[in-house]
Amino acid sequence: MTLQELADRADVTAVIYAVARAMDTRDWDLLAACYALDARGDYTNATADGRDAIVASARGFLSPLDATQHLIGNVEVRTLETGNIETGDVATTRATFIAQHVRDGGQFLMGGTYDDTLRRGTTG
């Protein structure tokens, strides 16, 4: 593995962590900065087309909660494709998560996987 590949993998992992941090701190600008304008969110029970829709969806779900904590682990960069003229540099990833949500003294815990495709470039 080259030094550039290691740096690219670290950058990909940093984006995944930034999304979790943005949700937990309710930093909607940071969350928006993690997505391209044409990003698509595909969740268990819904989809969101575009960065603004993704942020609005997260805000709508998380804002009523008193606190959240997303713990991300086992980040695996499955493919790292560089130099693709049509799509730019692309990475596919899988990460596990546990998310604790608190509201009015009650707590609930969620867990699962995040499967993501990331494209290098500006967020627009």
Descriptive notes:
This protein is an alpha+beta fold and 124 residues long. It has a single domain (3-119), classed as Roll (Nuclear Transport Factor 2, Chain: A), CATH 3.10.450.50. It contains 3 helices and 5 strands, in the order H-H-E-E-H-E-E-E. It has helices at 3-25, 28-33, 51-62; strands at residues 40-42, 47-49, 67-81, 90-103, 106-119. The strands form 2 sheets. A 3-stranded antiparallel β-sheet has the order 3-4-5, covered by helices on one side.
Key features?
5 strands, Nuclear Transport Factor 2, Chain: A, 3-stranded antiparallel β-sheet, alpha+beta, two-stranded antiparallel sheet, 124 residues
Which secondary structure elements does this structure contain, and how are they paired or packed?
Blueprint lengths: L2 H23 L2 H6 L6 E3 L4 E3 L1 H12 L4 E15 L8 E14 L2 E14 L5
Antiparallel strand pairs: 1-2, 3-4, 4-5
